[in-house]
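Hello Y.,

Per our agreement to keep a running log of every chain we model this quarter, I'm adding this entry. I've kept the format consistent with earlier entries: sequence first, then predicted structure.
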Amino acid sequence: MKSIVLCGGGTAGHVMPNIALLKYLKSHYEKIYYIGSINGIERTILKDYPEIEYYPITSVKLIRGLNLKNLAIPFKLIKGYCQSKKILSKIKPNIIFSKGGYVSVPVTYAGKSLGIPIVAHESDYNLGLANKLILKKCNKMCCSFEETAKSCGKKGVFTCSPIRDSLFTGNKERARKICKFNNNLPTILIIGGSLGAQAINECMFSLAKEITKKYNIIHIVGKGNFNKQIKINNYYQIEFTNNIEDYFDLADMVISRAGSNAINEFLILNKPMLLIPLPKGNSRGDQILNAQDFLAKGYANVLLQEDMNKKSMMEAIQQLKLDSTKIKKAQYPQKGKNGTKNILKVILENSKNDEK
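Predicted structure for the entry above:
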């Protein structure tokens, strides 16, 4: 029986690409397993997919800067490695597909020690720390950016990002009804990522009365960030949604962080976007590089968080509206491009063929 192990976690961006692949993997593997963290977002998301057998392991997260908790990382990695090796020895998969995140490191290292082929995927413009470590052990590193693939040498494969098929099935009228928009104003979708974005939220909340004179706003604020004080027509708040394709279909423009999975979804849906990357002090700078690349290619406009205030946000939104046609034209050659089948091809080419 052919089987595959998926791994990746920490944020939705390390999980949803695996979900995009799921439909296609089912045609080639009788059994699909997932190795993730004990209490991570990946375990929560995968509760909706009972066909995937989930195995939890001890995982780590690097805390940037000096922090005593980092002293426990080597011990947790060793424990996660031993747990992964025991699980992999038991289920004997034909291949491991890693979507990154720290939980993937012990899984891929254990897999390599057992001779199991490994294919990984990097969404961002530069490799994250986990994927830098995984690159040493994997057979191939699939990449969303062509430049990233080149930096990985012979192991790098430019595949684009895996995109969920459901994103192409949106119904704008269904979204309009949910949001109670009864006008012809252009609609802006605001997304802060699976955990929300406090700085963007606060800026948009402060602009609510002014901005809704010219635009309909769909604001996905993140869990626990709903603002009960805002009760304004044309301003629809929601903490999280599993039906984002409807909101995508209704949106004329998007304001978002610059995580690679999200911005590649906007790209193939041909949506003009204003990107507000996570500042370097709060990350490894990957979102800044993603945003710079999209800006250089004409796919997006960019507003840095340190420059963001009520005035600059309104100006940036007005500029995005003016630039929309130009941006859509630049994006058009990428419209509908989905890396899912490209990644599947790499997985199948590297998978063990022996039946168990």
